[in-house]
Specification:
263 residues; alpha/beta; five-stranded parallel beta sheet; 5 strands; globular
Length: 263
């Protein structure tokens, strides 16, 4: 009878990392409504969407709140998993839009890889610019979807998590946030185990699921890893920010990349 929570986020917002932390932090697998088999080694619950998992991944671009809340989801969840009554608990995971969009673009550029970076020779500036603006609009739609979830459910059943807090080591911030997630998911015993939560971050730091931004071979231009500073021109950033700011990204605590101003 257990209905898992929904781990809801825009693609590229650290969903895989958050799932690994939940897996190790709670001792229970997370699943996915749409699963990538390439992640099965890291996330054994990847192909599940039923009462055996503690949370399931879903992106607003694929699953709107009205469908999740009413139980109108994939056959994998409804028929095989028996989750026809709708989901009633959500973790809303969000990340700086410029970082999330660049992360998702790198994944798609590299055929779905969660660890390969974008390198010179394959990157097309014009293509990225067109995609980035369109994805900025999708990011704003996600913010709207988050508000729908918050409006429809009691506050106790919705948790907002900032990805940047899960990567912040200062003053034990990342362990504090993971503890809140574990407790929100009903695992009180594990949530009180500080050593377990610390270990979760070590175990979740897998080379097959995270990009590390390493430089390529020196002297080989086509091997150089591209960074956000390389791909986000002022013109592109300002075009995106016009959409993002109006859509509420500033209210989430985000702003323009460092060193860029827009009139």
């Amino acid at each position: 009878r257990h209905t898992p929570a929904v781990l809801y986020s825009y693609p590229g917002s650290g969903n895989t990392f958050a799932r690994l932390l939940i897996d190790y932090g709670t001792g229970v697998y997370t699943g996915a409504m749409l699963g990538d088999r390439r992640l099965f080694a890291a996330l054994p619950g990847q192909e599940r969407c039923d009462s055996t998992v503690i949370a399931v991944k879903a992106h607003p671009v694929h699953f709107k709140p009205i469908h999740l809340l009413s139980g109108r989801v994939t056959d994998k969840c409804r028929t095989e998993g028996g989750l026809s009554q709708g989901f009633d608990r959500f973790i809303l995971l969000y990340r700086d839009p410029f970082a999330a969009i660049w992360s998702e673009y790198q994944r798609k550029l590299n055929g779905g890889s969660h660890s390969e970076e974008a390198r010179e020779g394959r990157f097309q500036e014009e293509h990225f610019a067109g995609v980035a603006v369109r994805w900025a609009e999708e990011y704003v739609e996600m913010l709207h979807d988050f508000k729908v979830v918050e409006k429809k459910l009691p506050a106790r059943d919705v948790m907002k998590v900032k990805y940047e807090d899960l990567t912040r080591r200062e003053e034990g911030r990342r362990e504090e946030v993971l503890k809140e997630m574990v407790l929100f998911l009903g695992r009180d015993k594990e949530g009180g185990d500080g050593r377990r939560l610390e270990c979760a971050f070590t175990l979740a730091d897998r080379p097959d699921t995270r990009r590390r931004g390493k430089e390529g071979v020196e002297g080989e231009k086509e091997k150089r890893v591209l960074t956000r500073e390389d791909v986000y021109t002022q013109e592109l950033v300002c075009e995106m920010w016009e959409v993002l700011e109006e859509g509420g990204a500033g209210e989430m605590g985000y702003g323009l990349p460092e060193g860029i101003t827009c009139e």
